Fold:
Amino acid sequence: MRIVIISGSPGTGKTTIAEILSKNSTYEKSVHIEVDCFWQFIRKGYILPWLSGCDVGNQNDVVINAVVASAKAYYKGGYDVFVAGTIGPWFIEPWLKIVQKGVDVRYIILRPSEETTISRATKRAQRDFFPLNTEAVKNIWHSFTNLGVYEANAVDTTGQTVEESVALIGNMINENGFRIV
Structure:
């Protein structure tokens, strides 16, 4: 089993790809965790995750730690885990801690072109808890342009169908690609 993080800005296809990969898992049990749901659990004090006030020690760290704990629990329960969310390198530390404990974690950043991402994100239905506009999508997309050591984990899906992206990523996962150490 493994934990596969499918990341990127809104509109990159994270949720769709993670859902298909989890359904096509070769393991007996699999789960798809949508990080966006964890922000919806907050009833008081919610701040849009891309605004100031969500930095270290605050809402975003709490949410990411809750996601990591959930993913780890499913993994320990024998599930092949697929996590879909905007998890940039700035949120990778908690994942590195479980890697050090022997958990197989993969990290994939979907990065179609800025134009493709904005088009996809603005065409989908807006959600009250995550109201996106073109400027927010652009800013989040740009936060994934300089990935440092994780640049090799980026996949350009511009011009690909969902099926092509799933096949490419699925093959790379099965060939032990995208591991973080």
About this structure: The domain at 3-174 is CATH 3.40.50.300 (Rossmann fold).
